[in-house]
Design goal:
Layout: E1 2-6, E2 13-18, H1 25-28, E3 36-42, H2 46-54, E4 61-67, H3 76-89, E5 96-101, H4 103-115, E6 121-126, H5 129-135, E7 140-145, E8 148-155, E9 160-164, H6 173-190, H7 192-200, H8 202-206, H9 210-230, H10 245-255, H11 262-279, H12 285-297, H13 310-317, E10 329-333, E11 339-343, H14 347-356
Parallel strand pairs: 2-9, 3-4, 3-5, 5-6, 6-9
Antiparallel strand pairs: 1-2, 7-8, 10-11
Helix pairs in contact: 3-4, 5-6, 5-9, 6-7, 6-11, 10-11, 10-13, 11-12, 11-14, 13-14
The protein binds nicotinamide-adenine-dinucleotide and glycine.
Length: 357
């Protein structure tokens, strides 16, 4: 088992990575401080993995809330259902919420945990590749609005992240590939050597070979943990983790929640950001081509669906959380491994890249 640490002083927490960690309660049980635990999961994940978690909860008062499955259920209404479940459980300030599932359950559960009695503990038990390498680490929690993705939320760090790589065996291929987009992101924004490692191990990753997968997950978590420790509240460096996301979120919302997966939208968004960087003379077109080749190798989409309108996408992008005084700030790059925040890009140019996307 690999153990990493997110170094945030007294709020530091471990990330346990290995096969079978859910059933090894000895590795995560210490993260639960009080007597009450609510497990949040969904109709797909609970039948597969809930038993493994419950078997580690002996001696606690616990209950389970199972939500419908899908991005469209990451709503205020469902956060309220979680709060009601905590109330029914009789949860006090020392209760723990366990989020068992993908990024939807993790974000929603973390948000409810941040709200209940102004903040209780929560433990992330991610079961998608995307949640393992990104959303479960770093404390960004929230829900979607019709107006945009993740517009309501809180920074609320988990007490522990428990990554059981054996759960990836049941993950549908499309979801698995979407997770690889966020893995590529770490190489693209700040680690050219990792990008080259991904190129070299593409076949092993696509075959879900355990050693390659564990190495990719650990490298991604190490990267993210470092960024979060240095810039928890996204005052600087953390914004780079949004490479491809300003475009991606707009595509996701415009297509309709759940139509294009988050990781797929990020893949398209990274390709658009790379192309825009070339148009601005920040990076060589060869870098965008290399990114394109790796995304294609992982069977990820790289083009905007033809029915999405460039003007409407630009409109959506204006609501991006990185915008300051109404001005868009984009994460672009100076080539593989060298991302940076760029403000003041002419909207005509962005629209041109969107229209050709
Ligand atoms: P998801 O939670 O919808 O999970 C994808 C699908 O896989 C769902 O149908 C789910 O039920 C199913 N599933 C999960 N684990 C499974 C397993 N082991 N076997 C079989 N099926 C399984 O989507 P996701 O890609 O995990 O997460 C996307 C969400 O994460 C988005 O809402 C996005 O905004 C959010 N996100 C948050 C952060 C953050 O920092 N908080 C970062 C990235 C993404
Ligand atoms: N996924 C972006 C972040 O955690 O900051």
């Amino acid at each position: 088992m690999i153990e990493l640490d997110v170094a945030l002083g007294e709020r530091s927490y471990p990330i346990h990575i290995g096969s079978g960690t859910l059933q090894q309660a000895s590795c995560w049980r210490a993260a639960i401080r009080g007597r009450h635990a609510l497990i949040l999961s969904n109709t797909t994940v609970a039948p597969l993995y809930l038993d493994r978690v419950i078997s580690g909860l002996d001696g606690l008062v616990h209950s389970t809330l199972i939500l419908e499955d899908g991005e469209q259920y990451k709503t205020f209404e469902n956060a309220a259902r979680v709060l009601d479940a905590l109330a029914r459980l009789g949860a006090n300030r020392d209760a723990t919420l366990i989020a068992l599932g993908g990024g939807v359950i993790g974000d929603l559960g973390g948000f409810a945990a941040a709200c209940w009695m102004r903040g209780i503990d929560f433990v992330q038990m991610p079961t998608t590749l995307l949640a393992m390498v990104d959303s479960s680490v770093g404390g960004k929690t929230g829900v979607n609005l019709a107006a945009g993705k993740n517009l309501v939320g809180a920074f609320h760090q988990p007490r522990a992240v428990v990554i059981d790589t054996s759960t990836l065996a049941t993950l549908p291929e499309r979801e698995f590939l979407a997770g690889l987009a966020e893995v590529i992101k770490y190489g693209a924004i700040g680690d050219a050597a990792f990008f080259a490692w991904l190129e070299k191990h593409a076949q092993a990753l696509l075959a879900r070979e355990p050693d390659a997968l564990e190495a990719a997950i650990a490298a991604s978590c190490r990267h993210k943990a470092g960024v979060v420790a240095r810039d928890e509240r996204e005052l600087g460096e953390r914004a780079l983790l949004n490479f491809g996301h300003t475009f991606g979120h707009a595509i996701e919302v415009e297509a309709g929640y759940g139509e294009i997966l988050h990781g797929e939208a990020v893949a398209i968004g990274m390709q658009l950001a790379a192309r825009l960087s070339s148009r601005l003379g920040l990076a060589d077109a060869a870098d965008a081509d290399r990114l394109h080749a790796l995304l294609m190798r992982f069977n990820l989409p790289t083009r905007i669906p033809p029915d999405l309108d460039a003007s409407r996408l630009l409109e959506r992008m204006r609501l991006d959380k990185k915008s300051v005084s109404g001005q868009l700030r984009l994460i672009l790059w100076r080539g593989t491994g060298k991302a940076e925040i760029v403000a003041g890009v002419a909207e005509t140019l962005i629209k041109e890249v969107l229209a050709n996307g």
